[in-house]
């Protein structure tokens, strides 16, 4: 097992090597922007899908909707740059909301992002699977299996550490950036030179019968899903090389510029070429076919899109463990999320994210259209809270706060508007979120309450520091068959105990055998008391517990401690453990719940 782990994960890294794992801007852009950039593959499509539900003539509305999405992008970028400089230790929306709006707001932001990162992974790999099936129609119908396979690959990649995952991501991310840049450049060149005449379904300003504000708002909320992932860099500031805040802010600006250019370019080309969504072929695939034809660049586009969508899930794998770490540090999640793995990553957070994402993929059958509304509400609540928190942050700074918080105010207003739109028009899609969040908050508070009570009970007071002197120690050695294992266990018991008793459970199924065991034990260990407890129900655990409780109660009356020794043999090969029952493991678990009892294990190691 250890060899397999080393093969998959790599050699353990020393804690001193942590700084060597930090990222440059170039590497961080690949690691942390894949989610935001990949949304180009479905952002425009989500707007158009909503509009064509009325009429294909309504596609021209995607142009003004895209303009408002860009306004929101600029606002969020400026705001998150401020967050990076104000909170350079990372934590993003959770830390900003907690410090400026209170614990409840922070937990809502943190909980929303935890859900959103799982949805990020599910949406990204689902979209990647759809891109693969668009290029290879024979695979259509196997999207869920393809998605789960991609999640497992990305999980293993992240378990290998930051630097290795960033190195791996550079190829798909920068290939995608290059191919999309060429796509937009060629598409616009054909438009400018007249090689591609206008094939739009309707001219801007054309009146479309039945168009309503509600439809436009729904399309805008769907298109805003292109901005998910913008916050990831603010959560992961500690991943950057020094100066961390400066490098993180610069990387965010680069990412936002590329994202804005791609989104506007794809949306405009989609309008000009008159592309209409189809069930089995993505809009981006249709644009690629219209611009490149069926040549090598078309397949390069499909391949790079599938790769970016697949690895876009990596943004979630980068941000979720850090957020879980911050919540665990504040005692709202289990402390295991603070532990670093062999490769200095937060392995428990990575594995939890993968498991949660796979569950979502199975529940929603890998459908991006069903996942994206939940995805949007999960990210825009933290957006809104973080922007509001920054306004409060600037207010605390005193004079000039209004000027500093303009971007935050605009971002907050648009984010709250999108939340209202989703609530009003997509409630049928997002209602699970409003059930999951209260449950998640309840869990956060129960975990926090548990840690508070543990701290109260473990805190050492002056009166607790007085040591108690016991008069002796009663040791119970559990005996199954008479074997060499008993010899070492009894020797140890006699070295620590004033009164030693060997205890055996008879199952009343073979009285002759039980008497033979008793006789053999007394013959080999005549000086040790042998106590037999009978069980009529084929269970040895309950009789042992009752016996230990009785002995412990009597020992306490005489000011004695009680120790239970559980002998066991250890096979030479680890896999051989599955060939033997796990009675000792179950007994240790059961006995650990009894008070005033010390439980020890004596292990006899087999040589062959």
UniProtKB/TrEMBL annotation:
InterPro entries: AA/rel_permease1, APC_K+_Transporter. It is a multi-pass membrane protein. It comes from the Bacteria. GO terms for cellular component: membrane. Its main location: membrane. Gene3D superfamilies: Amino acid/polyamine transporter I (1.20.1740.10). The chain crosses the membrane at residues 48-74, 107-127, 139-159, 171-192, 198-217, 249-276, 296-323, 344-366, 372-394, 406-424, 430-447. Keywords: Membrane, Transmembrane, Transmembrane helix. GO terms for molecular function: transmembrane transporter activity. It is found in: Membrane. This is Amino acid permease. It comes from Enterococcus canintestini.
């Amino acid at each position: 097992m250890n060899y397999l782990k080393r093969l998959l994960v790599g050699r353990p890294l020393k804690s001193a090597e942590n700084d060597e794992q930090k990222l440059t801007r170039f590497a961080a852009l690949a690691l942390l922007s894949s989610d935001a950039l990949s949304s180009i593959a479905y952002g425009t499509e989500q707007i158009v899908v909503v509009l064509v539900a009325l009429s294909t003539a309504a596609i021209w509305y995607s142009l003004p909707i895209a303009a408002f999405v860009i306004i929101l992008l600029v606002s969020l970028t400026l705001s998150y740059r401020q967050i990076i400089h104000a909170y350079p230790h990372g934590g993003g929306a959770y830390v900003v909301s907690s410090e400026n709006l209170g614990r409840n707001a922070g937990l809502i932001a943190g909980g929303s992002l935890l859900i959103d990162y799982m949805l990020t992974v599910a949406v990204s790999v689902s979209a990647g699977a759809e891109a693969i099936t668009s290029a290879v129609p024979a695979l259509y119908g196997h999207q869920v299996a393809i998605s789960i396979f991609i999640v497992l690959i990305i999980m293993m990649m992240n378990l290998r550490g930051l630097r290795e995952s960033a190195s791996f991501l550079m190829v798909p991310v920068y290939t995608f950036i290059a191919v999309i840049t060429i796509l937009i450049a060629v598409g616009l060149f054909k438009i400018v030179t007249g090689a591609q005449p206008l094939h739009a379904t309707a001219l801007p300003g054309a009146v479309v019968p039945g168009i309503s504000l509600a439809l436009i708002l729904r399309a805008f909320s769907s298109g805003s899903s292109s901005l998910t992932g913008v916050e990831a860099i603010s959560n992961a500031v500690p991943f950057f090389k020094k100066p961390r805040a400066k490098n993180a802010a610069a990387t965010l600006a680069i990412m936002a510029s590329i994202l804005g250019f791609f989104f506007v370019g794809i949306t405009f080309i989609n309008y000009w070429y008159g592309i209409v969504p189809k069930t089995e072929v993505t809009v981006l695939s249709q644009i690629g076919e219209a611009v490149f034809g069926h040549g090598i660049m078309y397949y390069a586009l499909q391949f790079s899109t599938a790769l970016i969508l697949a690895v876009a899930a990596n943004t979630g794998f980068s941000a979720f463990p850090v957020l879980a770490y911050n919540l665990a540090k504040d005692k709202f999640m289990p402390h295991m999320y603070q532990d670093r793995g062999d490769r200095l990553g937060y392995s428990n957070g990575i594995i939890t994210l993968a498991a949660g994402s796979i569950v979502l993929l199975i529940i929603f059958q890998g459908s991006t259209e069903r996942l994206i509304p939940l995805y949007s509400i999960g990210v825009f609540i933290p957006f809104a809270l973080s922007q509001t928190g920054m306004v409060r942050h600037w207010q605390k700074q005193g004079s000039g706060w209004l000027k500093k918080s303009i971007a935050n105010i605009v971002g907050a207003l648009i984010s709250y508007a999108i939340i209202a739109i989703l609530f009003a028009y997509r409630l049928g899609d997002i209602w699970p979120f409003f059930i999951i969040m209260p449950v998640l908050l309840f869990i956060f508070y129960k975990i926090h309450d548990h840690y508070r009570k543990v701290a109260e009970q473990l805190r050492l007071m002056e009166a607790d520091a007085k040591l108690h002197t016991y008069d002796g120690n009663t040791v119970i050695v559990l005996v199954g068959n008479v074997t060499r294992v008993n010899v070492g266990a009894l020797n140890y018991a006699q070295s620590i105990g004033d009164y030693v008793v060997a205890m055996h459970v008879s199952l009343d199924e073979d009285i002759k055998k039980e008497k033979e065991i008793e006789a053999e034990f007394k013959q080999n260990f005549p000086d040790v008391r042998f106590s037999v407890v009978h069980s009529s129900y084929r269970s040895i655990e309950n009789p042992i517990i009752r016996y230990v409780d009785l002995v412990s109660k009597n020992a306490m009356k005489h000011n004695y401690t009680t120790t239970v020794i559980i002998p066991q043999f250890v096979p030479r090969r680890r896999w051989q453990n599955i060939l033997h029952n796990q009675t000792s493991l179950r007994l240790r678990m059961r006995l650990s719940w009894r008070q005033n009892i010390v439980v020890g294990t004596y292990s006899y190691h087999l040589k062959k």
